[in-house]
Design goal:
Bound molecules: adenosine-5'-triphosphate, zinc ion
CATH architecture of the largest domain: 3-Layer(aba) Sandwich
Distance between the termini: 36 Å
Largest sheet: 5 strands, parallel
Structural class: alpha/beta
Number of domains: 3
Order of helices and strands: HHHEHEHEHHEHEHHHHHEEHHHHHEH
Number of helices: 19
Length: 466
């Protein structure tokens, strides 16, 4: 599983083996020239909610007076965050295209300099130009390179650059008509000053595409290409689980190149298959069969979590997904329970069962132990340990066990915690075996559709004949 994890990690961090797409840095040099992109929202597939949010920004820019009259503040900064290759640059360029703005496409690292003051000067020059050429969109990719949280052992040059960016953003006039779009894969690294109201105060997560979005992206990138009638983009979308928009654009391009090489007048399934292989091979020597197998395991793992969560019903599920996100190959999103401070023993036991259900589903279906449950087990260990040592919920009695007494009693603590976890695991296996039909149905649905809401889960389970 580690190899596969690495593979997925790698395909989320594309290596520069492909031809650069038209947007990438075509007009960006040391002195930050702008361009006037022709990109529109029609070029961006999927991401409907994000586009909706950006429509408002476009309207702000097109008719600022309407908003100013109402006393509404024009947004200054939008921050896109999420994995690479998912269309952040494309979206920013579409905002520029839709508003006929000058587009400044820069990267945070371009401002990182050895000599104090040089980065800050670059920021100043960039904003001067943007003001002159307004309306403007300034897109700063990898904004964490200049916007990372400041530490006590400060780096003077970096701090000055960040300060200059903050000064420029604060100095906007109402009628400047400049929007800054920052992009990062690591929102958690950014300095809080940058995220304050009036600066980058709109944060928009851009996710890896699910099956539907992959289909839409493939449609966009094959729009002007002669496809053989047998080419089934839905099937292609299915085969490309875990790929991002940049990979899919490359697949469409590579398939066209293969067709030219074959002197073919149309792009066929064969060319697409070769293109997929090449894109995968460019990343790592693997084939898509492995992805399919992996996808099946993750589907059952997440279906296990979801089903048991639905039965135990401690906090409602929002979404179940097998689209990789960060390091996770799949996830079940539950409503945050941060408002809760008190849990009963039954509820903690329920939490442990939900966490163990992924592993249990894998054991029932594949009869294997995999590495996919590492994070789950860590959380289980923490809860069981707290039950024994902090909440007096074991045979050791109503006492807290900490410090020296914890090391002194470590064997007993471990034995109690083990008993809790083992008991929960047995119960979870039993629950899932009793509901094996539901497990299959939910896992198959996840495998096909890749994401599922609570309503969909519940209607699927209810539909099943008793
Ligand atoms: N939603 C999408 N619709 C259409 N094409 C897409 C989409 N997402 C990505 N692409 C394609 O992938 C290319 C690269 O995407 P883009 O550079 O916008 O990603 P990014 O999120 O900015 O990545 P990075 O973080 O690596 O800079 C785009 O130029 C486009 O061809
Ligand atoms: Zn899990």
């Amino acid at each position: 599983m580690n190899i596969i994890n690495n593979f997925l990690k790698k395909i989320n961090n594309p290596v520069p083996v492909f031809a650069q797409t038209k947007l990438e840095k075509e007009n960006c040099s040391e002195d930050h020239n702008s361009s006037k992109p022709k990109t529109t929202f029609r070029d961006v597939a999927g991401l409907d909610e994000v586009k909706e949010e950006l429509f408002e920004v476009v309207d702000f820019m097109k008719s600022p007076d309407k908003y100013i009259k109402m006393g509404a503040k024009i947004p200054k900064g939008i921050l896109f965050y999420g994995p690479p290759g998912t269309g952040k640059t494309l979206l920013a360029s579409a905002v520029a295209g839709e508003t006929d703005s000058s587009f400044f496409n820069v990267t945070g690292s371009e401002f990182v300099e050895k000599y104090v003051g040089v980065g800050a000067k670059r920021v100043r020059t960039l904003f001067e130009k943007a003001r002159k050429e307004a309306p403007s969109i300034i897109f700063i990719d990898e904004i964490d390179a200049i916007g990372a949280r400041r530490h006590s052992e400060s780096n003077n040059e970096k701090d000055q650059t960040l300060n200059q960016l903050l000064v420029e953003m604060d100095g906007f006039n109402k009628d400047d008509n400049i929007i800054i779009v920052g992009a990062t894969n690591r929102l958690d690294l950014l300095d809080e000053a940058l995220l304050r109201p009036g600066r980058f105060d709109r944060h928009i997560r851009i996710n890896s595409p699910n099956y539907n979005s992959r289909y839409e992206i493939l449609k966009v990138h094959t729009k002007n290409k002669p496809l053989h009638k047998d080419v089934d983009l839905k099937l292609l979308a299915r085969k490309t689980h875990g790929f991002n928009g940049a990979h899919l654009a490359n697949i469409a391009n590579e398939a066209a190149i293969f067709a030219v090489r074959d002197n073919s007048s149309e792009i066929t399934n064969y060319h697409f298959d070769k293109a997929i292989e090449r894109v995968i091979a460019g990343i790592e020597q693997k084939n898509s069969v492995l992805i399919e197998k992996e996808k099946k395991i993750v589907s059952y793992h997440e279906a296990g979590h979801a089903l048991v969560s639905n039965i135990v019903n401690i906090c409602p599920i929002q979404k179940i997904s097998i689209v990789p996100r960060g390091e996770a190959l799949g996830y079940v999103l539950q409503l945050p329970d941060e408002d809760r401070y008190i849990y009963t023993k039954e509820e903690l036991i329920g939490k442990i069962k939900i966490l163990l259900a992924g592993k249990a589903a894998e054991e029932i279906i594949f009869n294997h132990l995999s590495t996919g449950a590492k994070d789950d087990l860590k959380k289980v260990t923490d809860i069981a340990d707290q039950m024994v040592c902090e909440y007096g919920m074991s045979k050791l009695g109503f006492m807290t066990i900490e410090g020296n007494s914890k090391s002194f009693m470590s064997q007993q603590v471990q034995k109690e915690a083990n008993q809790i976890v083992e008991h929960c695991y047995k119960e979870t296996l039993k629950l899932l075996k009793e509901n094996i039909n539901d497990l299959n149905i939910v896992a198959n649905h996840l495998y096909d559709k890749e994401t599922m809401t609570l309503e969909e889960l519940q209607s699927l389970i209810q539909k099943e004949p008793c």
